[in-house]
Structure formats: structure tokens, C-alpha cells
Amino acid sequence: MATVVSYGAAEVVTGSCHLFSIDGGPSILIDCGMFQGTEEDRNYGPFDFEPSEVDYLLVTHAHLDHVGRIPKLVKEGYTGPVYATKATRDLAEVILLDSAKIMKEDYLTNYKKAQRQGKEESVTAPLYEETDVDNALKLAWHYPEYDTAFELHDGIEVIYHNAGHILGSAFIEINYTEHNVRQTIVFSGDIGNDNDMVLPNLEKCTHANYLYVESTYGDRDHQTAEISTTEFKRIIIDTLHNWGNVIIPSFAVERTQELLCILKGMHDRQELPECQIFLDSPMATRATEVYRNYSDLLSPECQNIKKRDGTVFDFEELVYTLDVDASKKINDVDSRAIIIAGSGMCNGGRILHHFKNRLWNQKNAVIFVGYQAIGTLGRRIVDGARWVKIYHEDILIKASIHTINGFSAHADQSAIIKWVSQMDDLSRIYLIHGEEDKQVILRSVMENVLKKKAHIVEPEEVIYLS
User: Fold this and answer.
1) 364-401 pLDDT, tens per residue?
2) Which residues contact 107 (CB under 8 A, 6 or more apart)?
3) pLDDT for the residue 57
4) Interhelix angle for 282-293 vs 255-268, to 10°?
5) 396: which strand partners?
């Protein structure tokens, strides 16, 4: 009997890792992501399965919570092939190398502090290093095309479909035969919010017997993209007119590119007050270059902009600050700066320097444009903290704090329900990749609207498909 065990993203958002096993057949791992927020310590424990016994790794997309433990998986014995779209592989390289770099820097900083106290043994070594990332990228990577079936193993057919979440993202359809009955299981990965801003919209899924579906925003609907864009512009314009600065913690992949498109549009329509715009994230800059390389996968609007201007994202006011010195010089700009920096949840990166220098000024504004996991600095600020500690210094928050959820790359409750409602022959729904309280709400909506029962998957629960 086929089984699925979720070793991550079960009753939590991060750490996506699902092992699909077919009786008498192969073991297929869908994603191997990093835990974030309060769950971070789980990254350092051993896998609860033997990596060397996994036959195939299928990757839905390149976000860290879906690919972040692949180097650890390889380090601990996985030698099989990896299946992902070509864009996902290129983005994963950017994200994993950045992850390794940050972990090394954090380790060296913590080690020096521990040395002064004679507690070097207490410092946890990095989860992996750049050489481990290189080893993961040297595995046999295969690049499925959207909507094109391929045989993964005897009798097992796999199809990648465009999830509309980030560049290269996919939901994965697996067709297999058990007891002479053909079955289909779909793993959603993360499915997109249909704003059509940078990427085409989420594809329909018309058939599945079993569905593992994300539930990050299963308790709510987002603002529309139009309302969110209008609100974003208003905050930008009002803050700049008041001679303040706008600080935007942003995820390097997809969210940053969306913001650049909006700001470029404001520039083109002469809506943008005089200002300087800094993309202060080497990782986001590299990710934007990957987006440029795959412009044929972007939305029709983005492709039209490229035909018109020769570029999708660039315009006069935009400055990419790649080195540390250029980043520090942003502090010399007293007013009318828009600063986009990572990390998106504010648990590291250059955003902390900008917070330290600007959070205490009431003329400034902070715009959160993405999900903030429990336990992160971003979540504490969004939840109303008045003081935060940054680099051992207490900082009073006087800047105005804004949260705009309509830019989310995740489908909201209505979009999830609509997507699931299109599936024929769906007998079982399994909720993953969400906080439990959100999943309880989504489960109730599915039962009332779709008249289908949904099961909230528990960590390491063995699900028998029959």
C-alpha cells in the first residue's frame, strides 16, 4: 500500500519534506526544506528516514523552506537524481549558496563570542557549507517541462504543472498503479496568488485521487492586487512627501521582483516623487538576474515591458548595492530613500542595519509585504512590539508599520477552495504547510463548501493511501 509521511510542513508552515512510498516500488521525496522561525532547531537533528534509501527527489520550487536541507540530505547519504524545472535549479543555487554563507558568518560570530567565555563546544556548527551545496548541485539534475509527462520509474508517471508561485514553481502530479488500479496523487507545493503581476496564474488541476495541499493562508482572503498596489503606492508617496524613508523587508525571490515592477510602473507614469531606490540585497540582485534569464516564463505584461524597454525591472532611480561599502553608504541618505533589503522575515541580513538606523524615526515607514513566521523579528514587529533588540541595542519603534498581504505569493482561502473544486475523483484531501489554527478553519470551509473531508497531517504521521 502506498504511504506518505510528512517530515516537515506538518502543522507548521516551513520545512517541507514529504516521503511518498509505493509498496514494492521506489521511495520518492517531495522537497527537502529548511525549518524557519521557532522550528529552526529541527534543522540540526538527524533525518527521521535514511537519506541513502530514498530513490528520487522531486522539488516543487526554490524557496528555502522547500530546498534548504537538500545539501544536508546529500551530506548524509542521498545520491539519487533531482527533478526540478531549470529555473528552480538556478534559483536554488542562489538561495542555497546564500544560506551557506549566512550560516558560516553566524557560526564565526557566535564562536568568537563563545571563545571569550571558554564555551566554544557549545556553538553549533553550520548545517552545511558551500562545498556541500556544490555537491548537491553536482547530482544528476533533470529538468521537466511544464505539462509534459515523463516516466520516473516503471509504471510511475510524473507531470510538473505551473504553480504560479515563484519562477519555476510547480505542483506535481504523480500517476501510479496499485492493485491494478491507476491512482493520481498531487502535491501542491506552494500555489500562487492569481495577481498576474510577474508570473502567469496558477494552472488548473482537473484530476486527483489524493491531494496534499498547502494551507498557509487557509483562514483568510487577501486584499486584491489592485487594492494592495494602491495602498503600497500611497504609503510610498506620503512618506516621501514627508521627507521620510521607506524600508521594505523583502524576500529575494518573487516579492522583490514584484516590487520592482510596481516601482518601475510608478516611474514610467511619473507617479514617483524624487527619491533614490536601493535594492540592498546581493541575493535578491542575483535572483533578479535569474528572472531576467527566464523572461519567457514571466507574465504577458512583463514580456511586453521587456519588448518596449529592453528590461523588465530596471529604471533610473534604482541602484543595486552589491558590496558592504555601498550598503553602508545608504546610511548617508537622510531622506527620500526606498530601501528593499533582506531577509524577508528580518531574522538576519542587511535589513537589520537599516532597522537600527531608521526604526526610531517617526517620519519613516516600514512595509511588510510577506508572511512573517512565528518567532521571527518581523512577526514581533507586525504583532505590535514597541521595542526590539538589534545587535544588542534596544531600539524604540517610532516608524509607522504597515502590512500588505495582497502581494502574497500564496493562494488565499478562496483561491485554494476554487483550485480544489476543479478536481474530479478527489477522495482525500490532506492539509500541510500551514499553522494548525489556520488549517482548522480551512478544513471547516472545505467540509461546508466542497462537501469534502480534509485531514490535518501531523508530523511523521503515516498516511495510508487506499
Assistant:
1) 999 999 888 888 999 999 999 999 999 989 999 999 99
2) 123, 124, 125, 126
3) 98
4) 80
5) 387
Interval 78-89: pLDDT, tens: 999 999 999 999
Q: Are 5 and 465 in contact, with CB atoms under 8 Å apart?
A: no
Which alpha helices (H) appear in 340-387, and where do they start and end?
351-358, 377-382
Give CA–CA dist 315/309, Å, rounded: 9
For residues 186 and 356, give the distance between their C-alpha atoms in angstroms, rounded to a whole number.
44
Q: What are residue 213's DSSP bridge partners?
A: 431
Cα distance between residue 265 and residue 315, in whole Å = 10
Q: Which residue has the cell 509527462?
A: 149
How far is residue 357's CA from residue 298's CA, in Å, rounded to a whole number? 36
Q: Give the residue-averaged pLDDT of 136-148.
A: 98
Distance CA 188, CA 160 (A): 10
Rg (CA), the chain: 22
Cell readout for 455 is: 485531514
- Write out the E strands in 203-255: 210-214, 246-249
| Residue bearing cell 528516514 | 49
Q: Do residues 256 and 350 touch, judged by C-beta distance below 8 A?
A: no
Whether 50 and 77 have beta carbons less than 8 Å apart is answered as: yes
> Tell me: the pLDDT tens digits for 40-89?
999 999 999 999 999 999 999 999 999 999 999 999 999 999 999 999 99
Q: What DSSP string runs through 75-91?
A: HTT--S-EE--HHHHHH
pTM for the predicted model, two decimal places: 0.92
DSSP 8: E
Distance CA(90)–CA(98), nearest Å, equals 13
